[in-house]
Amino acid sequence: MESLLFPLLLVLLAGFMFFSMRKQKKRAAEMQDMQNSIQTGTRIQLTSGLFGTVIDSSSSDYIDVEIATGVVTRWNRLAIMKVVHTEDAAATYPGYVPPSAPLTADGDEFTTIEGSVDYDDDLGGGDSDATLRKDQGGSTPDAEK
């Protein structure tokens, strides 16, 4: 019985290694196909985390990516991590505010979950209700009286 245990463990280990290498090769082939199928106008994410739009994909070695309006950079095709789908592309642009954000603009007043703050009070240059704590360079309310 002990003589069969060691060869059985070796067979299991070899099977595990075979299947894990097979899965890794399949994943690498899918990544290669995705990188080669990139076309002009596709929104992508690079391995550095940078989002951009493909401007020129005519070369087999590199692509030109627009990362901001008028800013085009050249990247190796292997730097493409994933294609950003059309419905998710809006979230990759600077200044994007998701629709479920806790702050909503209502004129000059921003409403938060806790309450609202009117920012016009401090813009007039007159008396402000804002007071600094002692550790911020202000004085205590008792010292002002």
Automatic annotation (TrEMBL):
Keyword Cell membrane (UniProt): yes
> Keyword Transmembrane helix, does the record have it?
yes
Location within or outside the cell: Cell membrane
Q: Which domain of life is it from?
A: Bacteria
Q: How does it sit in the membrane?
A: Single-pass membrane protein
Span list, region Disordered: 114-145
Q: What is its main location?
A: membrane
Q: Where is the composition biased (Acidic residues)?
A: 114-124
Which terms does the UniProt entry file under GO BP? protein transport
Q: Which InterPro entries match?
A: Preprotein_translocase_YajC
Q: Which UniProt keywords apply?
A: Cell membrane, Membrane, Protein transport, Translocation, Transmembrane, Transmembrane helix, Transport
GO CC annotations on file: plasma membrane
Name the residue ranges with Basic and acidic residues bias. Answer: 130-145
Family of the protein in this entry: Belongs to the YajC family.
- Return the protein name: Preprotein translocase YajC subunit
Protein species of origin: Gordonia otitidis (strain DSM 44809 / CCUG 52243 / JCM 12355 / NBRC 100426 / IFM 10032)
